[in-house]
């Protein structure tokens, strides 16, 4: 099997760390792995297939001879370095929002729109969607194909790992401080996150929505390739370490009963149906953490519209929401589109 020189940019972060793990777990055909981060991390090592790999500083000449670059160093850094990497012949799979809505850059969830990967040839960059969008479209794609979605109303319950390593530490530190009756410190979030819910993810726009909410609105339409779908979102940070949960209300053009939805979701790629409320069985963030699938349950009729459903959708935001989805794109790229 052909092997590839792979670089992970942002390797020391929450997403980059998981990318290295997922590349190893899935035995991605890596010839040589280059780990890139800021100058702060130079000299650190990370383990890959039992070998210690040294982290190097991300620089303009980091991509000579690299075939595939998995990027998660933040939007500003991707904006600068992804085109540089692409110009040197590397296909970039970028986890930031920097390029997602550009019309000539594919925005891909392999279970939903794998074919769009072919467009990597245009700019040498493929965007990985926002984590909250990914799990929602994985669950909705089979239902949309069967009954055409008219409108989506989604509310999210997002884990702190979505904000990166510093936020994971902030929740741990605040819980410990409260337990020990000490004052809490707030460095990452504007309010206490321990034992609280913050209806605020990313920055606020003039409309009153946050950027995270608008990512869900815009990315969903692009990935489902249907700009007629109405989408509205409320995104909330909750004191959970791993796993985003979503309450999703969907109105369809045609009939879609809970039984029809369950039948479709049972055979949908990347989906696990977990829906037996009489036995207290439904998707939970704690169960989804560390797993690859998107879990769907609590499927029930919304009888305020002609054809409507409510459901609960949960996935590991760092795996399916970021690292795993990016590696799945890379797998499909080398198998079918390179
Ligand atoms: P994180 O834990 O804070 O990690 C940030 C990573 O970027 C670290 O490896 C850091 O290196 C590196 N970095 C920062 N500034 C850099 C620079 N100037 N040059 C090179 N590397 C630099 O954050 P994260 O949670 O992994 O998220 C990183 C990015 O991934 C986010 O900003 C976001 O764009 C994207 N993301 C996407 C999703 C999604 O929904 N698909 C989810 C989460 C994050 P050092 O350790 O050396 O500082
Ligand atoms: O907050 C979350 O749960 C997901 C966060 C994603 C994120 C964090 C910082 C910057 C993104 C993203 O992927 O949309 C970005 C960004 O690149 O805009």
Topology (elements, then pairings):
Blueprint (H helix, E strand, L loop, with lengths): L3 E6 L4 H12 L4 E8 L7 E4 L2 E7 L10 E4 L3 H13 L3 E4 L15 H4 L6 H4 L1 E3 L3 H17 L1 E10 L6 H15 L31 H14 L5 E8 L6 E9 L5 H9 L4 E3 L11 H4 L5 E8 L6 E8 L3 H19 L1
Parallel strand pairs: 1-2, 1-5, 2-4, 5-6, 6-7, 8-9, 11-12
Antiparallel strand pairs: 3-4, 8-10, 10-13, 12-13
Helix pairs in contact: 1-10, 5-7, 5-10
Structure overview:
- There is one protein chain.
- Helix 1 links the parallel strand 1 and strand 2.
- Helices cover 33% and strands 24% of the residues.
- It is of the alpha/beta class.
- The structure holds NADP nicotinamide-adenine-dinucleotide phosphate and ligand 3JN.
- NADP nicotinamide-adenine-dinucleotide phosphate binds next to helix 1, helix 2 and helix 10.
Structure summary:
The chain has helices at 14-25, 75-87, 110-113, 120-123, 131-147, 165-179, 211-224, 258-266, 285-288, 319-337; strands at residues 4-9, 30-37, 45-48, 51-57, 68-71, 91-94, 125-127, 149-158, 230-237, 244-252, 271-273, 294-301, 308-315. With 338 residues, the protein is α/β, with parallel strands linked by helices. Helix 5 packs parallel to helix 7 (211-224) and helix 5 (131-147) packs across helix 10 (319-337).
Largest sheet, described in full?
7 strands, mixed
Strand order of the largest sheet: 3-4-2-1-5-6-7
- C-alpha end-to-end distance: 14 Å
So, CATH architecture of the largest domain? 2-Layer Sandwich
Q: Bound compounds, please?
A: NADP nicotinamide-adenine-dinucleotide phosphate, ligand 3JN
Average predicted local confidence, pLDDT: 98
Tell me the number of strands: 13
| Computed CA radius of gyration, to the nearest angstrom | 20 Å
- Please identify the structural class as seen in this structure: alpha/beta
């Amino acid at each position: 099997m052909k092997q590839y020189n792979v670089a992970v940019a942002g390797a020391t972060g929450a997403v980059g760390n998981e990318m290295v793990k997922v590349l190893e777990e899935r035995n991605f055909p890596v010839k040589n792995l280059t780990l890139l981060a800021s100058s702060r991390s130079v000299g650190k090592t990370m383990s890959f297939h039992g070998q210690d790999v040294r982290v190097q500083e991300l620089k303009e000449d980091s991509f000579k001879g690299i075939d595939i670059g998995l990027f998660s160093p933040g939007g500003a850094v991707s904006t600068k370095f992804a085109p540089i990497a692409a110009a040197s012949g590397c296909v970039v799979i970028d986890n930031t929002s920097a390029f997602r809505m550009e019309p000539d850059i594919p925005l891909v969830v392999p279970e939903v729109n794998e074919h769009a990967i072919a467009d990597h040839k245009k700019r040498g960059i493929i965007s990985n969607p926002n984590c909250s969008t990914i799990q929602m479209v994985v669950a909705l794609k089979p239902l949309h194909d069967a009954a055409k979605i008219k409108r989506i109303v989604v509310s999210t319950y997002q884990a702190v790992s979505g904000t990166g390593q510093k936020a994971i530490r902030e929740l741990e530190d605040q819980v410990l401080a409260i337990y020990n009756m000490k004052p809490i410190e707030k460095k990452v979030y504007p309010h206490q996150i321990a034992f609280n819910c913050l209806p605020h993810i990313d920055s606020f726009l003039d409309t009153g929505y946050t950027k995270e909410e608008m990512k869900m609105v815009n990315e969903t339409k692009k990935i489902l390739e249907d700009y007629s779908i109405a989408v509205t979102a409320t995104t909330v940070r909750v004191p959970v370490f791993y796993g985003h949960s979503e309450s999703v209300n969907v109105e369809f053009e045609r009939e879609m009963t809970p039984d029809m939805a369950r039948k479709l979701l049972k055979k949908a790629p990347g989906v696990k149906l977990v829906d037996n409320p009489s036995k207290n069985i439904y998707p939970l963030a704690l169960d989804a953490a560390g797993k690859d699938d998107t879990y769907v349950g609590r499927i029930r009729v919304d009888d305020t519209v002609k054809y409507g459903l409510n459901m609960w959708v949960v996935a590991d935001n760092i795996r399916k929401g970021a690292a795993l989805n990016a590696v799945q794109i890379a797998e499909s790229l080398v198998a079918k589109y390179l």
